[in-house]
Amino acid sequence: RNSENLTVIIDDILDFSKIEANKIEYEKLRISVASLVHDVHTLFLPKAQEKQIEFTVVAEGLVPETIVSDPVRLKQILINIIGNAIKFTQMGRVSVVVHLIAAGKTAELNALAFDVNDTGIGISVDQQDRLFKPFSQADSSTSRKYGGTGLGLELSKRLALGLGGDLQMLFSAPGKGSLFRVQVPIGSIQSSRLIHDLDASPAPRSRAANLYGEALKGIRVLLAEDSPDNQVLISRLLRAQCAEVVIVNNGEEAIPRAIREKFDVILMDLQMPILDGFEATKRLRAMGCQTPIVALSAHAMKEEMDRSIQSGCNDHLTKPIDPQVLVQKLAFYAGSNER
């Protein structure tokens, strides 16, 4: 948990520094709205259940099936805001309501809103002025009790503005909770399919429906990882889901195994001795290997992710690894490989 918190703090500071230096790059990719909210809901549901608070994500009215935005940055914003809501809520609920803000003929003003409402500790009017300032929290006791850098809201606000949208606090009061709105532009919706059920178009995940038990039954995984601790942790997790796991210590060992044997997915650590994951992936692709490769890295920076994809990886997961996300990714790519 400490390493996970440290990673979040470092990434926030690095991202904030990039924004200050105007070096943040934003992508424009087509995103499945259902898949986006499903990923975020899956990430936070265990924590909500641990705290015995209700956590829901619903659509209000019709929403676009897909939008064009930066998936990494938009998810980063939602993770910050929803993470805060769950952290500061000790009882009651956290809800995320996704809805369309239509501007009629002015298509460029159309937006998709994510309203994050909680029944948490709330914020007084006096404290609200400090919320969107870097390294600031409502008061010093907040940092002592709940932790955090005080960067999350300011970083999320600037990222939202960078996407052409905004982050606003619509309501907050001590003891009554808070309501934040993340809003991103979506342009014309005339060619978009509108849906009212956010489960209507999630990414294929039929084999991941049951995240625990036999979610990976029949799936053969090659794990290239040099850390003995990570080898044990990851292999135990996957075997608990009935996966078959073959372990190698570096990229040089991974290449002949991946070429000679049939694997459904390869988990490739990027920082390994002798031959790292970047070069091993490049060589495998050059040799005609079509097996899905998911990169594992301690770095969450966009440049690292881009480099892994350019090397030939299908996806990128950041350590410490979220077990549910890992199981979902493997089930998804194993299913894609079957097709």
What's the short version?
By secondary structure, the chain is α/β, with parallel strands linked by helices. It contains 11 helices and 14 strands. It has 2 domains: 2-203, Heat Shock Protein 90 (2-Layer Sandwich), CATH 3.30.565; 207-338, Response regulator (Rossmann fold), CATH 3.40.50.2300.
Characteristics of this structure?
single chain, alpha/beta, Rossmann fold, five-stranded mixed sheet, 11 helices, Sig_transdc_resp-reg_receiver, phosphoprotein
Which residue ranges are poorly predicted, with pLDDT under 50 across at least 5 consecutive positions? 1-10, 140-149, 200-212
Q: What is the CATH architecture term of the largest domain?
A: 2-Layer Sandwich
- How many distinct domains? 2
SSE order, as H and E?
Answer: HEHEEEHEEHHHEEEEHEHEHEHEH
Helix content: 40-55%
Could you name the CATH topology of the largest domain?
Answer: Heat Shock Protein 90
How big a fraction of the residues is strand?
A: 15-25%
**Main β-sheet, spatial strand arrangement:** 2-5-6-8-7
Radius of gyration: 21 Å
Question: Would you mind describing this structure in some detail?
Answer:
- By secondary structure, the protein is of the alpha/beta class.
- It folds into two domains: 2-203, Heat Shock Protein 90, CATH 3.30.565.10; 207-338, Rossmann fold, CATH 3.40.50.2300.
- Helix content is 40%, strand content 23%.
- The protein is built from eleven helices and 14 strands.
- It has helices spanning 2-20, 33-51, 71-87, 125-128, 140-146, 152-162, 228-240, 251-260, 277-286, 302-311, 323-338; strands spanning 29-32, 54-60, 63-64, 66-69, 93-101, 111-118, 166-173, 177-185, 194-195, 220-224, 244-248, 265-269, 293-297, 315-318.
- The chain has a five-stranded mixed β-sheet, covered by helices on one side. Strands 11-10-12-13-14 form a five-stranded parallel β-sheet, with helices on both faces.
- Strand 12, helix 9 and strand 13 (293-297) form a beta-alpha-beta unit.
- Helix 1 crosses helix 6 (152-162), helix 2 packs parallel to helix 3 and helix 3 packs antiparallel against helix 6 (152-162).
- The model is unreliable at 1-10, 140-149 and 200-212 (pLDDT under 50).
